[in-house]
Request: fold
Amino acid sequence: MKNIAIIGLSPNQDKPSHFVSKYLQDLGYKIYPIYPKEDFILNEKVYRNLKEIPFEIDTAIMFRKASYANELFEELLLKNVKNFWMQLGIINDEIMQKCKKYGINCVQDCCIKIELQKKV
Reply:
């Protein structure tokens, strides 16, 4: 896991998407923010959707409502994303099943920052 798209990365430093992404950056991961506004967040170019990112993405982390994963799924396939992470409080069993069917590792209702901190 090296290149991570952060779907719903808020410019607000108090939001979990922001401080989790900053943590990932500090660990040396390359993040690609996806947000409807802003040009740069955490000194990274902001993209409007996953398809817009011109680089290989191995992991996508979502900080949006669970139902948004249904819209996002086709983009995960198009970008050949290997890992899809739905953050704490985000549960979408339908997408979990689709990911399993297509060989995408999927996690839901779990914080990547907390999980990584357990390994340190």
Summary: The chain has one domain: 3-118. The CA atoms of residues 70 and 94 lie 8 Å apart. The radius of gyration is 13 Å. The helical segments are 16-26, 68-78, 93-101, 112-119.
